[in-house]
Every structure is written in structure tokens, then in C-alpha cells.
Design a protein that fits this description.
Layout: E1 2-5, H1 10-21, E2 27-30, H2 41-44, E3 54-56, E4 62-64, H3 66-73, H4 84-114, H5 122-143, H6 156-165, H7 179-188
Parallel strand pairs: 1-2
Antiparallel strand pairs: 1-3, 3-4
Length: 199
């Protein structure tokens, strides 16, 4: 399969982590959001939304949306709990990541890292921090009770939330008051197959 992604993107990094941790053979096609690669006609023919990541199979089928790609790649692996309740908790965190975490932490990072904090986005940038810190507080409370988001088992939930949390400082978030998150970040970096984000 061919995986299309921008290695600086947290959503693409999720897919990279799953590919590495499960040792899945693939061809990585580096894309640049900043250079407009995702808006090129040849790419829009694969994904009309112009978003990455995307995986393309040899038969031409494509799959988009980072959490859907992770779920497909990790099917029947140790990254998805077999207990049905634990699996539901994993999905709970995946939805949390998309609706309560990524829209604030990732967007603040985009404004700071990709755009360089332009004056016309500063008010938006600062407004994102309250809800971003709220999401981090929810994670901190959970991780104060258990090593991973779904308990003792490392899962896709951890990968999904690690992606943007470990670079939250690039969006102006300070994790000094979140010791359990910082410990969790360290544990994840020690998981076999872990690969660092390629800056």
C-alpha cells in the first residue's frame, strides 16, 4: 500500500505510528500541506476533500480519515482491546480526540507552527487555549489512575491522543502542570516500534 501524509501533521503521524508499531509494509509518499500538495489535481482525484492522511491499495481503493485508517490497519492486533467494554472506551477516546482535543490543540499548533501567529488569527489562537486545557485536564485525571487511556493496555486511543499532545507546546500549551500526561508521553516513547515525529 501507499500512505500519503505530511510528517509534521499529527493526524498523519498517527498512521505512521501504527504502520511502524505493527511493522506493516508500505510506501510513504511525503506531502506538504504548506506547499499545496494536497490541492493538486492528481491528489484531489484520490480524495476530493484535499485532506491527508490517505492510504491507497494496489487495487486502487483508498481510505481516508486518520482514525478510520488506524482502525483498519490495527484490526485484530494488540492495539485494539478484545474486551467489548474496553474497545468501546477506546472508541470513546477516539471521538474525544476528534471533537474535544484536536479542534483546539491541533488548530492552535497550526496557527503558530504553520502560519507563524499572524495578527488576524491571534484572537482565535488565544481562544483555543481554554478548551484545549480542558481536554488536557480530562486526560490528566484519567492518567492519574492508570498507565494508559483504556487502563493497562496501550491502544489506538493512546496513539490518537499522543500525536498532538506531545507537540502541544508548539501551539502554546504548557504541560508543566500535567505530570501524569508527561509520564504517559514517556511510556509511549518506550513502546516497541515507536518512531518519533519527523520534524
Amino acid at each position: 500500500m501507499t500512505a500519503y501524509g505530511d510528517s509534521v501533521s499529527g493526524n498523519c503521524y498517527k498512521v505512521q505510528l501504527v504502520l511502524h508499531m505493527l511493522n506493516i509494509e508500505n510506501q510513504w509518499q511525503e506531502m506538504s500541506i504548506a506547499n499545496g500538495d494536497t490541492q493538486a489535481a492528481v491528489y484531489l482525484a484520490k480524495n476530493p476533500t484535499g485532506k491527508i492522511p490517505l492510504i491507497e491499495f494496489d487495487d486502487g481503493r483508498v481510505l481516508t480519515e486518520s482514525n478510520a485508517i488506524m482502525g483498519y490497519l490495527a484490526a485484530s492486533s494488540m492495539l485494539i482491546p478484545t474486551d467489548e467494554f474496553c474497545k468501546a472506551k477506546m472508541y470513546q477516546w477516539l471521538f474525544f480526540e476528534q471533537y474535544s482535543h484536536e479542534p483546539y490543540i491541533a488548530v492552535a499548533r497550526y496557527i503558530q507552527l504553520y502560519l507563524g501567529l499572524p495578527d488576524d488569527r491571534l484572537a482565535e489562537y488565544h481562544s483555543l487555549h481554554a478548551k484545549g486545557y480542558k481536554a488536557l485536564s480530562v486526560m490528566e485525571a484519567t492518567l492519574s489512575q492508570q498507565p494508559f487511556l483504556c487502563g493497562e493496555q496501550f491502544s489506538l486511543a493512546d496513539i490518537a491522543l499522543y500525536a498532538y499532545t506531545h507537540v502541544a507546546h508548539q501551539g502554546g500549551f504548557d504541560l508543566v502542570e500535567y505530570p501524569h500526561i508527561r509520564g504517559w508521553l514517556t511510556r509511549i516513547a518506550q513502546i516497541p516500534g515507536f518512531v518519533a515525529m519527523q520534524a
